[in-house]
Amino acid sequence: MLSKGCPLPPSSSLPPLRKIELLTEADVFATLDNLTRLYCPLVFSIEPGRKHSVGDVPVDSGYVSDAEGENGDDALTALRADGFERTFAERWLTGFIARVEELSCFETDEARERALDQASCVLESFFTSTIDEEERLEQLAQYSRDFTFSTSSRNPSLSNNIEVRLNDGLAGQNSEEPDDVGLQSWGASIVFSKLMCDLPEWFGLGKETLGNSPRIIELGAGTGLVSLALSALLPRHDITDATIVATDYHPAVMDNLRANIAANPLHAPSIEAATLDWSKPSRASPLDVEADVLLATDVIYTTEHAVWIRDCATQFLKKNGTFWLVATVRDNGRFEGVSNTVKAAFGDEGRPCASHGKRLTILHEERLGKLDGVGRGDESGYKMFRIAFA
């Protein structure tokens, strides 16, 4: 975990570009100072009225930094080396620079110029590092990730290893889309997939519980990791005719989700991708049939998300179905405490009833720890909820 006072991860601290007009001048400079401390650690301020170039800014390649001393914070070093965070910051800075002349928050032209100067310095430092372009492209190519989960198998013809290949390479590549977080496989989906494969009986993922033809819907599927792992797991437990509907909303995320399903042909036959807007859920096919199981991992980023997810689940879950929801716990940044909104949403006495008159209720909550090398720097763990009508 990052120590107190360390720069925050860009993906959890940078304000959405579409809302940047709402920031104050102090907010803008606090955001830029955070990026400067993270990527140009020897520079903590920009002198008013002075033009800076990358030659004025000590370049940190993101791989080695001694700014914290010989016993520096390993988590901070890892954050600087995180390719996703770096690219997230790069596209945000690009968008900010394009919009800076239109922002009304600056009290003087001098302040606007300083903000532009500081943003340009940090952005320029990314392209003047010791890493050449060929190596940079190789790093981006590494976003194509292979996951292997161990499990038990009742079918002797199927191995005990479940393998999934995903394309995370699109994550953070489009500077015009600051909210395409579903292009990245986040820690919660990895932790949940592993736990599901380790303990399928605990989740009721057997023929005795679900029958041979269960219907499963994933909300906010992102890259599709959970759905793909589940589609491979079920046949190993004698469920051969399951239907899995993996849903998300952002167009780029949906394109990537469909590509990942196609890239895993052994798992793909039982999976269908569908667009779903949580704020205005549609019961059109393939979401016109209620699900035996609902799944959602790391989908709560605002109070509204918890309420929307609850209301979607109320519509889509069968009366005797189960909803597994995993919320990421973040102790700092703009998503700090947001995981607490889940209990508030599902404990609200005014929450809607399903057509049969019952409301969704949290039956069990469990805290899950992080796995080594999994998850972003601002994640401290996960809360897993078992939810059903009661």
Automatic annotation (TrEMBL):
Q: Does the keyword Methyltransferase apply?
A: yes
| UniProt superkingdom | Eukaryota
Query: Which keywords does this chain's UniProt record carry?
Result: Methyltransferase, Transferase
**One MF annotation (Gene Ontology) recorded for this entry:** S-adenosylmethionine-dependent methyltransferase activity
An individual GO BP term: methylation
Q: Identify the stretch annotated as signal peptide in this record.
A: none
* Pfam families the UniProt entry points to: Methyltransf_16
**Stretches assigned to coiled coil:** none
What name goes with this protein?
Methyltransferase-domain-containing protein
- Please report the organism this UniProt entry assigns to the protein: Emericellopsis atlantica
